[in-house]
Specification:
Helices cover 9% and strands 53% of the residues. Strand 3 and strand 4 form a beta hairpin. It contains three helices and 17 strands. The radius of gyration is 30 Å and the shape is elongated. It is mainly beta. Strands 1-2-3-5-6-9-10-13-14-15-16-17 form a twelve-stranded antiparallel beta barrel. It has a two-stranded antiparallel sheet with strand order 7-8.
Length: 346
């Protein structure tokens, strides 16, 4: 009958070994460990991040002028960017033939308050033109190529959205206005010896929009459906009175984005502008170019994240003849390249 004493001796030895190895403040057997402040990595089995950890608004596709996409949600942020745009054909402007390229710097930001986002942007331009014809007359060699510095248009907007299914489905309304604050001006010496000052015809933009979007895992999507009203006062070029017709468009944006890692994402946006009205003939002015405009452009982009900073590289590529005309009216050109740095504030 030595089995029981041997079992008891073995159990006692094992208990002594456990007590020696365990710390003095170890919780009793069966107790639930106390909570700690150590962060928990939200990674899946493959080590990848399955969602944005509540920061999905920072990963939406980037807005780019042409006009810019409205986002379903945006944190409070400030940004600065620089872009290079090309206008292949300036004949959309009255009495002028040629091409142009523009270097633009922008300062902007957004302020988030409850379900509202208020945003604004101020632009500065350095515009180079190549204009061989003005008022159906050949320009002088010294006037053909010119460069001008100017203040660009100012934009102000507000967006209200509501979460209908968490971050997966967000929808609401936006209204944005674009003020014609630009100061671009070029002077041309005419054949009769007079000097004509050309100020780019300007429009006030009124842009109501329905905004839909959301985030599913590491995937984001945004859709805008709305109108753009280009309304401008008349102007004068030399002794020519320019009647500026009002033009109305249906504006649609479709954008998707994917961020495989927290520091890197990619997106693509497709935008279409379809003219809603027809412009009646104006005596002494060729306005037929302003009818039946169908503008289409696509914008692939990369985004890089470092803490509360985001950096975007965006290319906007015009895909239709209508974008050549519309790009001049919108002052964003046919194609553009943009680099942007954004600082987020929680």
């Amino acid at each position: 009958m030595i089995a029981v004493p041997l079992f008891v001796a073995y159990a006692a030895a094992a208990r002594a070994a456990d007590e020696e190895a365990a710390p003095e403040d170890a919780p009793p057997e069966g107790a639930v460990p106390a909570a700690t402040n150590a962060p928990v990595e939200d990674t899946d089995a493959g080590g990848n991040i399955p969602d944005f950890g509540g920061d999905a608004a920072r990963y939406y596709p980037p807005p780019v002028d042409g006009p810019a996409l409205r986002l379903p949600e945006s944190p409070t942020r400030l940004y600065a960017d620089g872009s290079y745009a090309v206008a292949d054909d300036l004949t959309a402007l009255p009495y002028i033939v040629g091409s142009a390229e523009n270097y633009r710097a922008a300062l902007g930001g957004a302020w988030r308050w409850r379900r509202f986002t208020f945003d604004g942007q101020l632009l500065f331009n350095r515009t180079k033109i190549d204009v061989p014809m003005v008022l159906n007359m050949q320009t002088s060699m010294e006037d053909q190529k010119q460069t001008a510095l100017s203040l660009g248009d100012t934009t102000l907007g507000a967006t209200w959205t509501e979460r209908l299914a968490g971050e997966a489905l967000i929808a609401g309304l936006a209204l944005r206005g674009r003020l014609a604050t630009h100061t671009t001006r070029f002077d041309f010496h005419l054949a009769d010896g007079s000097l004509a000052a050309f100020v780019i015809p300007y429009y006030f933009h009124i842009e109501p929009t329905l905004v839909v979007g959301g985030a599913l895992g590491r995937f984001t999507y945004v859709m805008n459906q709305g109108a753009i009203a280009l309304v401008g006062p008349d102007g004068n070029f030399d002794e020519q009175h320019i009647t500026v017709p009002s033009i109305y468009f249906w504006d649609a944006h479709y954008a998707i984005g994917w961020a495989p890692w927290r520091f890197l994402g990619a997106s693509v946006e497709l935008a279409t502008m379809i003219q809603l009205n027809r412009i009646a003939s104006i005596e002494g002015q060729d306005v037929t170019k302003f009818n039946d405009i169908r503008a289409v452009w696509v914008a692939p982009a990369l985004q890089f994240h470092a803490g509360t900073w985001r950096f975007d590289a965006i290319a906007r590529l015009g895909l239709s003849r209508g974008q050549v005309v519309y790009g001049v009216l919108e002052y964003v050109g046919t194609h553009s390249l943009t680099a942007r740095a954004t600082k987020y504030f929680d």
